[in-house]
């Protein structure tokens, strides 16, 4: 190979460098001029498929309330980076004592509530005590029982004193998807008789109004001061570009899409799966979908008090008769991840290999187990609701598959409220349902614990859950979690079918949305370039 030699004088070198710098500067200028600069102002209009249940986040277990209010109006002590690692947020740092019985939280200074007061240790103690108060009743009164006391050890420091090590405490302090431990101002809540008359938090947007079954309006909080620095998941600067955010309650799929077509809204959540392909063709829209870390898994709960469902052979017959790939196509138009695993598909502990442990579609095996179970043609009920179409669709698909191997079933459709009550009271044979995913393995395994609603009892699983709760060693937790999953593949406590993809249709002029926002939409990061 010939190497070309260049001889340049000192003046030539300086001239070349000068020309190079000019080219670089020109290119940089061109780059800046072609990039959209986020601007403030306007209204972001988002649809939601159901209304808020209430505004006291310490009392509620509904995902929709957390979707609208948490990390917008309310914020949490800890949160997630882009890899869903837990990081400090309203606190600067946290540390467990050597024995694991005390968690010390050093709070940020200068954080303002929407009423102008500064967040201090007394507010954090009040919030932690309130969300576990049985008189409220707080949503965490059971899972925070190991907390003996929350102590104020300085104006910006609190200590959580435990009766035993609590592995998932930091998960609970970080959770923003459901059952969030939001920090509220003590004086304001106590002044209203311990009632949340109007949500007051530390978030980039403040609560303005709620018109039931119509809309929720949030306004930019101009004095926002909780976060700074580069954006990394839910960490970093929260710009709050829009003046206000309006969530419109639209319960029907068709209504949401019509509103998008008319230009009445900018973003639609829960986009109907059957319309995704057509919507993708539109130049005025961007479509996002994916299985998020907290993605709901859709399943059938089996009542262990039922004479047939309590038999392992019959449960195996049910399991081997189901084609999870086909059920996913029917219920989600293929927009999901077929899976039997309680370990969610986007977690670090998941591997395609674990699916091989699960009962796969095999009608011949299903018939063999059915014969061993002593089944005599009894009709088994499937309880479902049409509030979410996937509940009904997976029930219809499963009914056909079970019928093909000789299992008779009858579908019963009830309203959503009845569906929820009968789930909690175990009043069903087979229940078509879904569970919101949890990043915390202990919370994800709750449905297998001693307090489950459908009568499942396995002392080995109970012991493994207890072992997870009693260690701070993440590797040990993952080991126990894996063992629990293996047991579910043999014991068939329930039948998981798939993990649902979350879907968003967003007007092309709305910028800033990326894949992480499928997990938790950072509305403060979005802006309009119209």
Helix content: 25-40%
Oligomer: single chain
Number of helices: 15
Low-confidence stretches: 1-34
- Tell me the CATH architecture of the largest domain: 3-Layer(aba) Sandwich
Structural class designation: alpha+beta
β-strand amount: 15-25%
Distance between the termini: 55 Å
Biggest sheet strand line-up: 8-9-10-1-11-19-12
Number of E strands? 21
Task: Give the CATH topology of the largest domain.
Answer: D-Maltodextrin-Binding Protein, domain 2
Tell me what the structure shows:
With 530 residues, the chain is an alpha+beta fold. It has two domains: 46-251 and 507-528, Periplasmic binding protein-like II (D-Maltodextrin-Binding Protein, domain 2, 3-Layer(aba) Sandwich), CATH 3.40.190.10; 297-500, Roll (Dipeptide-binding Protein, domain 3), CATH 3.10.105. Helices cover 29% and strands 21% of the residues. The protein is built from 15 helices and 21 strands. The strands form five sheets. Strands 8-9-10-1-11-19-12 form a seven-stranded mixed β-sheet, sandwiched between helices. The longest helix has 25 residues, at 10-34. The model is unreliable at 1-34 (pLDDT under 50).
